[in-house]
Amino acid sequence: MTCALCDGTGWKSVDIDGVARVTRCDCVRETSTSRLLADARIPRRYQHCDFGTYVAYNEQLSKALQHARRLADGFPVVERGLFLLGPPGVGKTHLAVAVLRQVVMTRGARAIFYDTRDLLRVIRSTYDPVSRTAEMDVLRPVIEADLLVLDDLGAERTSEWVEETLNLIVNARYSERRVTIFTSNYEDRPDASDPDSLLFRIGLRMRSRLHEMCEFVDLDGADYRELPPNGGVDDLVVLWKMRGKPGRRALPSRSGGQARAQLTERDGKSDPGRGELKWTGGRAGS
After folding, report:
1. Does 21 map to a domain?
2. DSSP 3-state of 214
3. Is residue 161 part of a domain?
4. pTM over 0.85
5. How confident is the model at residue 27 (pLDDT cuts 50, 70, 90)?
């Protein structure tokens, strides 16, 4: 449909101090923003995620939300990115996408989202002689994006090639001072022998670089995927408390089955009276 203001020209008439002038039409900016969001590769499951749909029901989640808002509001004049750590389902990806969406819509930034395993799969596919895509065709937008979200770091199977490829991306962005947001389910413990530690999964060299590039933020909460149907914020709090105090956690956390059963069945019957959770982005997951 042709824009009613500019009739498709991209320019609209304005009156400034009684003088008729022309300026760029709003539709140009809207079209550009839509294109940038499409190019950002946000998975369909997370495309609705923003700060308004994120529910912070404990202190750690509230602090994480504050860190994410501060980065989005200050972009691009920020010193460091973010590294969001926590168990599955607490909203790490939700916050990362919320930052990405805001900087695209308010700053016109070039941003890109990748699940780490998917990025490595795409890079490997370029080695296929049948493929007409070169490795740098994949790496260039990842390295040069104004903002990169690299989701679920550490989930990939470790190998020398994986380590070298990820170090190439991280070092290139570090050298150009480009902002990056990482998420991971693995705890940041200085124990290289523990397979559930971030250090074991990514190596000493990358961990050191990431601490310089990013502010590390821990999130603790319930796994939203464990909620019963029509579960609400109160149920999330119950699930979170039943998991126990923050501390060393098993990965992945799947202890919520019993808690979910107890929430669904109280005194032998379901409890539909709980407040329904108005959190469309809660399933943003890890």
Report:
1. no
2. strand
3. yes
4. no
5. low
